[in-house]
Amino acid sequence: MFKKFISIILFFPIFLLAYQNQVDSIIIIGNKNTKDHVVFREILHPVNNVLDSTILKEDINRLYNLGIFSSVDIKLENNIYKVNLVESFFIIPDLVIDYSEIARKWSYGLGLAHLNFMGLNQELYLGGAFIGEKWFAISLNNPWITGDHVSLQSTLYNKFSDNPFYEYRYHETYFSLKSGFYNGLKNKFEYGLSYYRNKKHTTSELLVHENEKNIYKYLSFEFDYQFDTRDVYRDPTKGSLFGFNFRYSRSLIEDSPNVAKVSLSYDKYILTSIKYLHQPVLSYGIYSSFKFPKFSDLPIHEYIYIGGEDYVRGYSSDSNESPENFDIDLEVSNVIYNYIELQSTILKKKDYGKIEFGMDGFLFVNSGIGSKSIESLNFNELLIGYGMGLKFYVTGPPPISIMIGFNPYGQNFIHLED
């Protein structure tokens, strides 16, 4: 009897501690516009179980990744799993200021984004540029209609763009419908159909090749797969992202080529510890893209420019700005590209009354090779660039980066990236 009494005395503090850390119920605070079920479906911590700090952290990240909250905090108080949210401004004006390194033009315009349309985490966008490269776009994206993240996205896009290398002016029209689903939390599948029309307005008699058409029309099928273990999508500190993309474009114009593209990518993020740096993250990535048929049969709008903001920073997309005695072709259809980047917080992301703002600095080294056929990929034509930059985080849009890139030939270029 005495031994049982002693056992009860010893076990009681453990039982009391476990009870105090048990989640009996979940409440949401702060979602004035967002529907409750949009929040609850992201919360995976079980009720009537002892608090698991790992699941709590993952719940915070999933809610933050929705992009509609400027602050997310979860605490256990009196056995209640309290989810405290600060909603962002959902209707955000988009001041369009963009520089195209290929067209060598600034574009200006206005847009309007509703990041939480109808309180369902739907994103509605309407906007365009009216000076420079003129474009107009409207899109509606619902990331979770039913089932396991079954999504639906529609986009209508119209643009007048330039290719100064061939003195062509394009009129592009694009419409797409996409849907997708998850398998678990890490496997994401997306597929879609799209219509693309490209009509050229020739300002010069300079032709790329005799097969180039004045008008192209395509019906495309696209498939995308991602295996995603990142903690925070907009600014990961750990995890990885693997992606596979396939697009097949069937020509609706006689004698125009069908086009296929296959892409593979992998990004890895590691939170490190370096003296004098705040939350330094080391990231590495590799990307490859291959297009068919051969380069000489591709339309101009399918060309890739390996130098510049999209790939190897520290170079220009314009071969006329290449260094002396530089014989590497920057205009290609196949690319293998990689980067190493060290990023550290300068201004920690903070909620300023429904608006989050933060700033990071980063150093980078990137390299890549390109070719006009897979067989002619040559590592002797490797481009290497390096530099530094600043990355700005604001609630809503993706981060904006301003960077200066250098190359071994003594050149430097400023790149603006969003």
SSE layout:
Elements: H1 2-20, E1 22-23, E2 25-29, H2 36-40, E3 49-50, H3 53-64, E4 69-77, E5 80-87, E6 91-100, E7 105-117, E8 122-131, E9 135-146, E10 150-163, E11 168-183, E12 187-202, E13 215-228, E14 239-251, E15 259-271, E16 281-292, E17 304-305, E18 331-332, E19 334-351, E20 356-371, E21 383-394, E22 400-406, E23 412-417
Parallel strand pairs: 2-5
Antiparallel strand pairs: 1-3, 4-5, 6-7, 7-8, 8-9, 9-10, 10-11, 11-12, 12-13, 13-14, 14-15, 15-16, 16-19, 17-18, 19-20, 20-21, 21-22, 22-23
Structural class of the secondary structure composition?
A: mainly beta
- What is the helical fraction, as a range of percent? under 10%
Count all strands and give the number: 23
Q: Regions with pLDDT < 50 over 5+ consecutive residues?
A: none
Order of helices and strands: HEEHEHEEEEEEEEEEEEEEEEEEEE
Tell me the radius of gyration. Answer: 25 Å
Q: Report the biggest beta sheet as strand number plus sense, adding barrel if it closes.
A: 16 strands, antiparallel
Query: Mean of residue pLDDT?
Result: 89
Number of helices: 3
- Beta-sheet strand percentage? over 45%
The N- to C-terminal Cα distance equals 72 Å
Shape: globular
Largest beta sheet: strand ordering: 6-7-8-9-10-11-12-13-14-15-16-19-20-21-22-23
Plain-language structure description:
Helices cover 9% and strands 56% of the residues. It is globular. The protein has three helices and 23 strands. 20% of the residues are buried. By secondary structure, it is mainly beta. Strand 8 and strand 9 form a beta hairpin. The strands form four sheets. A 16-stranded antiparallel sheet has the order 6-7-8-9-10-11-12-13-14-15-16-19-20-21-22-23, with no helix packed on it. A three-stranded mixed sheet has the order 2-5-4.
